[in-house]
Amino acid sequence: MLSRKPHLALASLLIAVLLAACGPSATEGAPDAVAEAPPASTTDTPARQAERGDGAVSTGPVVSPSADAPRAGTTTDWPLSKVTSGKAWISCQAEYNTDEGDGTPLESLAFFSVVDALSPCQKGGVLRLRYQGKIAADFTDLVTRVADIAGRMGIHKRILDLDSAGGQVEDAIRAGDAIGAGGWTIWVREGSVCHSACVFVLGAGDNRMISGKVGVHRIIRMSSTATTRAELNEELRGVYDRVKDYLSRNGVAVAVADLMMTVPNRRLRLLSKDELQEYGLDGTNAAQDDLDRLQLMRRCGDDFVMRRDAFMRSFDSTCKKSGAGLDDMQACGLELRTQFGFPDTKCPADSPLSEFDRMADSGDEAPGEPSAAESQDASG
Question: Is the dihedral of CA 284, 290, 295, 298 positive or negative?
């Protein structure tokens, strides 16, 4: 006669398995395991990115500086792309302290998605792109595609309202070259930051207005195969040569790259207001200013250029006070410019802060031009 003990043992095992399936999970019964895996953050802010050390990461191959030619314009047949490394908004107003705020969210970078987002800005000729997040390939796609459509639509006043703790060095350089070719003003407003690789993007703007924090640290070479300090330094030297060439062609002091070399990548060296101006990261881009002066003299005359230069000097000394918010700087500049005859009747679009001159809601006339009704009244 067969023993019933094996059958009883099998039955007991099956009951235990069923009870385990219906009861608490293994994780719930192991508090130590839960403590070792903290919940993921639902809000990935630039401050959190800085804490993770996302600031200035180099992963691309070490290439000669001459390989960094600015990107040509994109075609209509764009590869699929979305904003995934941060958040982006499009506004057709320069002001951000309004009911509209940052504007309309932009996630898809498909051709017609960008066209639809920018179409409302075509009338006023002004767009403000707010970006908050990491510098990565999708950020480069974002600024390149927005600039391309803005050019097709004749939207010439472009503002990049930036808040970033940094990211990929190579993507920052590619984005910067696209920005440098597209006539952008870059803001770092109060409460925002521009750290590490973001500084390369900042340097590419035609004009920079900064109220937030700007900081740098050493580049992290993530794809390195170096086994000694000498090998790593040799590899980094190639990266920094590329960075210096980029800074030089954008009117930024190459001393910024030297400063970065001295700051450990887990620390951050914040730049003072004086340092930002000394390094060419605040105010008018020196490289672009030389080109603008020549073009403005031909288009608007010597008197316009002299008044513009005088306004910029006065703006720097009067409006750019330590601790001043970006909106305070703008209000000060708008009040100050009337003393220098701006907006200029001949060249209103080239006048300082002309991005704040909106077209009349009732007509299609450009800022500074008389409306049809005004012209009729003037003719009697």
Answer: positive
In terms of Cβ atoms closer than 10 Å to its own Cβ (0-12, 13-18, 19+), residue 82 is middle
Tokens of 349: 């679009």
Scored b (16 or more CB within 10 A) or e, 272-302 reads ebebbbebbbbbbbebbbeebeeebeeebee
Spatial contact of 135 and 172, defined as CB atoms under 8 Å apart: yes
Amino acid at 293: R
- Using a 10 angstrom Cβ sphere, with 0-12 exposed, 13-18 middle and 19 or more buried, the burial of residue 269 is middle
Beta bridge mates, 163: 132
How many Å is the Cα radius of gyration of the chain? 27
The answer to whether residue 98 scores a pLDDT higher than 60 is: yes
Neighbours of 349 (CB within 10 A): 16
Q: Reading across the β-sheet that carries 220-221, which strands appear in turn?
A: 167-168, 56-58, 220-221
Cα(259)–Cα(315) distance, integer angstroms: 28
Identify the DSSP state of 282: S
Q: Is 155 helix (H, G, I), strand (E, B) or coil?
A: coil
For 247-289, the pLDDT digits (tens) are: 998 889 999 999 998 898 888 999 999 999 999 999 988 888 8
Identify the CA nearest to 112 among candidates 72, 84, 145: 145
